[in-house]
Amino acid sequence: MAAGDVLTPALAQEIACDIGRITGFNVLITDREAVVIGCGDTGRLGTVHEASYEVLRTRRAATHSTEQARRMRGVLPGMSLPITVGAEAVGTVCLTGAPEEVRRFGLVVRRQTEILLEEAALLRSRLLHERAVDDCVRDVALYDPEVVDAETVEARMAELGADPRIPRTAVVVDVRAAGASRLSLLRTVREVFGGGQDVAGELAAGRYAVLRAGAEGLTERCAALVERLGERHAAEARAGIGEPGRGVAGMHDSYRDAALALRAGPRLEPDGRVFAVADLRVPQLVASVVRQERARYAAAVLAGLRERDDWPVLRETLIAWAEGGFQLVRTAERLAVHRNTLLYRLTKIEELSGRGVREPRTAMAMYLACLADAL
After folding, report:
1. Is it the case that residue 47 has pLDDT exceeding 70?
2. Residues 6+ apart with CB under 8 A from 153
């Protein structure tokens, strides 16, 4: 991004007013056609500053006395200096006043103008880069081979310095943070996922995605991100983790898995903050069934249980019973209850449902029904 492309009328006006307040002189800035685009005297905007023609042509500063200024269009006594980027003059900065007075400030004002212009160019370049990263992440999240070629998305990744051949694992992060700016939240995400081949961007307000090169230590890293977002931004955050995928299609599948983990995980584990799809493959399978059929199945298998006020506790018990391998000690530990409490709950479920939950096949059917109910 060339600094000359950033010398917009809005920026020129801002620079002219700022430098004018600091120096006490009236400051005027022209574009490369010698047209005034920034000036403390707004009445001069859009006029031609004739003295700038020669300054732009020679790229050399010039002073103009009262007599010289009188013979030129739109010129007052003072000094005009070229604003250069590399070897190109992109405009001029002019100080109004007695030449012997403004000459002392001319070089300083010129350099300050160029510094501000370079900073604006750098900022714009960074913003454009971040926007390109966001677009790249969205391209993967919304990838449809019927709409866009994988090669096109891979080429965009390569332009950002991300090797599209590396297997990547998608992480999706939902953030609720009152008052925190979207840029500051994204900056925190990129701090935690700052590997040279990681691609992190914003999908929508409050939702971020990371295409992480590799999969090692992802759960711990996501937990660290959730904690840092809470500490730094008072944010409530949750993260879903997919499984590694290669190529655009593989990364898209990983993103879909991460999004599903983030959607299903909190329903099954309300207090959880990080959810890996590898731990949710059975709920994923249940969720893939048509909603109406899931509801019919749950209603049939869980008759006599779902209507009770303590159903959430009973459902939690049935899920833990299956995921604990139908073992009393392990299940009681998962639920953080005494073994006798677990026995009481299981007996109660059997009495209410008329089904023997100690029989694995029956218990597995009830487990799937509980997942269908929760999802």
Report:
1. yes
2. 136, 139, 140, 143, 164, 248
